[in-house]
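Form 7-S
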Amino acid sequence: MRLVPPIHRATHRIGLFLADLRGDGLSQGEAHILALLASASPAPIAELHRGLAHKRSTLTSILDRLTARGLITREVGASDRRTFVITPTAKGAPIAKRVLRHLTRLEDAVSRRVTADDIKGFLKVVSAVEDEADRGTTHKK
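Output:
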């Protein structure tokens, strides 16, 4: 196996990298959601689902924890009352920005070590892995 183990290791290492922010008491899933919200909020739940590919029950659980901690709000969508819109709170916004900065520093450090073509190829491979894994998944999101 040449693709899955390195992707798994990199994902694990990103989790350890995020652990540096554990002073905020965030799980890896919570950190990723806050980072996404720091760059694109308010966001409908469907957008978070597309951005992170969590199972819906997992995403709901993470959002429940973030809501309970006062880091996000969930409001019924104004244009579509069947959805919820997620927004960082005054307490959650600085934490979300800190997570985003932390992950951006990682990406910037990696980008200095590789070429634009390397990144393009990596994104193509990761997209193919994601597509094939999704196609072969019987327990859909």
